[in-house]
Amino acid sequence: MVNWNWKATFRLIKRSPNLFLERRCTPPAVVPGFRGFSSGSTAKSQCNTFHGTKRIFPVSDYVETAGICIGMQGGVQRQCYSSLAGLVNRNPRFSTLNDEDIRYFEGILGNKNVIQDEERLIAANTDWMHKYKGSSKLLLLPQSTDEVSQILKYCNSRCLAVVPQGGNTGLVGGSVPVCDEVIINLSLMNKILSFDKVSGILVCEAGCILENIITFLDNEGFVMPLDLGAKGSCQIGGNVSTNAGGLRLLRYGSLHGNVLGLEAVLANGTVIDMLKTLRKDNTGYDLKHLFIGSEGSLGIVTKVSILTPPKLSSVNAAFLACKDYISIQKLLQEAKRRLGEILSAFEFLDGQSMNLVLNHLEGARNPLPASMHNFYVLIETTGSDESFDKQKLEAFLLHSMENELISDGVLAQDINQASSFWHLREGIPEALMRAGAVYKYDLSITVEKLYDLAEEMRTRLGNVANVVAYGHLGDGNLHLNISAPQYDDKVLSQIEPYVYEWTSKHRGSISAEHGLGLMKANKIFYSQSHETVQLMASIKNLLDPNKILNPYKVLPDSVSS
Amino acid sequence: MKIMVAIKRVIDYAVKIRVKPDKTGVETQNVKMSMNPFCEIALEEALRIKEAKLASEVVAVSMGPSQSVDTLRTGLAMGADRGIHVEFNQTLYPLSVAKILRALVEVEKPGLLLLGKQAIDDDCNQTGQMIAGLLNWPQGTFASKVILDKEKQVATVDREVDDGIETLSLNLPAVITTDLRLNQPRYATLPNIMKAKSKPIKKFTPQELNVEIKSDLEVVQVTEPPKRKAGILVSSVDELIDKLKNEANVI
Hints:
Chain A is α+β, with helices and mostly antiparallel strands. Chain A is built from 20 helices and 20 strands. In chain B, strands 9-8-7-10-6-1-4-5-12 form a nine-stranded mixed sheet, sandwiched between helices. In chain B, strands 2-3 form a two-stranded antiparallel sheet.
């Protein structure tokens, strides 16, 4: 968190203060004042983070929210956003909540943490993009692993479906109920349990908000290996459960490497203690990985231990222009070779993305005003020696310029300038929202082929829609966004299933870092073989035989029901 | 006409400031340093004046330890023509800075001296006024708009004051200090960073300029501001009223 109060006289500097506060804020949902709680802030305030958030856009700018479940009382259901996974039939095997259930939960959690209040339920039922909306009548706020265990044991015996929820910032409808599932929100489990300064190993509860952990670690001189736009609201339990990627993956690797252990509660209430703090532990199957990225479908993560690297003081950023995609690939190769140990981000955006940001994002300013370029790249380095790093980066950039890999570029001279570069890259989702309807795809494709898809899409769609491509190029992760004035089934039929088929044909992944959730559960076969999915289903069956955990999601209907 | 711009190397404004345990100052070891943002604005203004062909040369001046050269290089990469570094390894107070600047003005004879209105580290907001006094030049402080008339040798300066905009007309040579809204500084582009490497930076010491550094000031101690207490969320209007009545005693 940028320190905001130390210099009152300078508070007004330049443009909007959001530029600094909302750095890396993908969901434009959080008011600065609601962010950056100290780790000591009360549990109550944290659980209200989501409810207290203010949408920057009027809701009408969003996709109109659509209920998606059929077969429920009053279960509506207009479908405004056509790329939803389709209407879902409520699984009749699940019981319906009754007064006795409520009393039982009140017995476990106390009245205060059994929420039936309409307003709070609306917030918990709706995802941040206002794209998915469930109709759960009950929100539970457990305060301990034991409470989670008791809840699940009971739900399992009653065959009540549940949806585990953290900060509810997911993009694929994984964190909200589809029908009337009981919402188990972990926001009250927000304690940091221990931190080992020698090894940098943090142990905390699942409901800790990522930004609070980042602030805590910052004071200790360490960084989280994970950083993403939604950090002000998202929780570590959700990050782990969805194997969130984000901006530091290039440098520090995925959560499969950084999570050293976790504690999870199975559907039947069994607590599995794998909360190790060891880097090496080859004793049998490493089962923690089952809970990383399984989106709460195998168990609820209640505690995690994470390996955190020391914070390095020297951060530099450059914003560059490239004439074609070939140059960008060469630049990436060169950057890995010449900046190796200090390279911490390599992000790209195409000219269309840049145009969009400049037109729709407040405070956006083109650092390279001369003319528009086809591609832009943001390179960040993180190291321990300011002058050495800067010299190294400058030498690399000048070399790349001489070899015509880059056609123009600027180097941030202070943190403020670096933030403004990041503002452009991270402001794209927000700009897309403002521009109208948007179809979002999060794909992993080999870097070489990655941009071909955007070009083919452009040819396919012609003037009908604006194809915007950007992403974590260093990780081979493309965020393909198709922006149109409004949602239109004709446009959608031009995009899907083509995008998925194309990705599948090139052995890519249809979900690089967002997960499958509800949106893509039935699309899993584009990226996984039938045998693999079958094995996943067997594991699901073993750990959650009644299928009460996060139903309708992750695995397709064909194998999960 | 030549423009001289004073630029200062300070802790980057986005960095969290930590006070040294012995309370003698703030921690600067291993901390990101950058050009003072108000100085950046002053330099940007000088460059724009030059680009409008109202000045022939922009000279950037910085004082302090050898690392001040990095800040000068940034200034040169933004577009200044050359730099002057006055090397001094202890704290410089505004009056000393003003005296050094006076000595440099005598060497360089600029037609306009531009400074940031204050540095964000010590917040003194004194140097511009002092140097104007020492040189007996007119001063336009906290400029939010600057217009030069080359023919008449006059600068018109808008200042945002409490009751509106005050417009001053200054005869050149003059001292102008820059406020936040004057302009938006440019980025250092790669070609300009490359060019900056070969631009000259001349070194002086205060002795060479015949300036004796002494100060009437002594910093007694530096402490952190009191920590803000965390807010609380009340669960009902009644609770809020109760707290306002009985805890805050405001109603």
